[in-house]
Amino acid sequence: MTFRNETAATTTATKRRNRVRMALMAGALTALPVAGLVTANSASAAPASVWDKVAQCEATGNWAINSGNGFYGGLQFTSSTWAAFGGTAYASQAHQATKAQQIAIAEKVLAAQGPGAWPICSVKAGMSK
Length: 129
Hints:
Blueprint: H1 6-44, H2 48-59, H3 79-84, H4 99-113, H5 121-125
Helix pairs in contact: 1-4
């Protein structure tokens, strides 16, 4: 008659259960910050037509502008703002990113700083937080 090592079986089942728990927790912890960003951005999102008006005011509507004054792209990001809000995931400078990518970063800036990030052009475009 063969006896099963019950302690070893319990330990293996416990380890497996703990791995599953860890995977679920990691997934939940990863999803929470993303859910928060989506909520924050959608609450302050401006329509594309408003961003077009801001870009027209800031950069004559040229989303690829690099005028050499330290501001880049259609929404005239500084290098530090572009990097701080995650723009470098798209391109090293804003003028190298697409219009949609610039707007995605602008939505984050708008959520954090409000329309005052574009003090003159946001007013002209009718932007509100």
